Amino acid sequence: MTDLSRLRQQAILRHAAGYIELGELLVETDKPVPAAAQTLLLRALATLGELPDSSRSMPAAQILAGEALRALGRWQDALQPLSEVVERAPQRLEAWLGLGWCLKRLGRLPEATDALRRGLESSPQQAILHYNLACYLSLAGNSQSAIEHLAQAINLDSRYRELTEAEPDFNPIRSDPRFIAATHVTV
User: Fold this and answer.
1) Structural domains in the chain plus CATH codes
2) Tens digit of pLDDT for each residue in 167-186?
3) How far apart are alpha carbons 97 and 123 in whole angstroms?
4) What residue spans of the chain are helical by DSSP H?
5) What are the phi and psi torsion angles at 32 (to 5°)?
6) DSSP 8-state secondary structure symbol assigned to residue 34
7) Which of 91, 93, 117, 155 to pair with 35, CA 20 to 30 A apart?
8) Would you say the pTM of this structure is higher than 0.70?
9) CA-to-CA distance for 26 and 24, rounded, in angstroms?
10) Are the beta carbons of 81 and 62 closer than 8 angstroms?
């Protein structure tokens, strides 16, 4: 690849990432995607389409495609590029998170928890993976494992303690004494 080709590829990836970032600012979880966000996210996908075929399969491009599709609410479509990334570049944290997000929203909670567990095999010290896995395990009714992963997330990054207050995924275990102990600071 020539320097000029590499620069063009990097510019395309930056532009697509920018469209996604702007589009995601307009998207609210579990609400319809606003038209302005759709326009930006579709523009990101079109921009990625400008990459040569050989570059479209690289993890950076696949993650962006998966993120755009995920933000559009096209969760089934997003599974393919995100799955390819986790197979080829398992250290890419955002691919595991996106994969879990999509599987959860498709009603495939066991697969979502499995994806995050596999992500933790590659990156065991990632608090966000532990936190999201705790959310999914809570929804699945597995309070013991949910609390263990939540405690691990808080141990790695104490900011996750505050997030638990507003996170509805923890409602099924919120009254569990172990959850209370893990999320409250005693002075």
Assistant:
1) 1-108 (1.25.40), 125-187 (no CATH)
2) 999 999 999 999 999 898 65
3) 12
4) 3-26, 35-48, 53-56, 59-71, 75-88, 93-105, 109-122, 127-139, 143-156, 159-166, 177-183
5) -60, 145
6) P
7) 93
8) yes
9) 5
10) yes
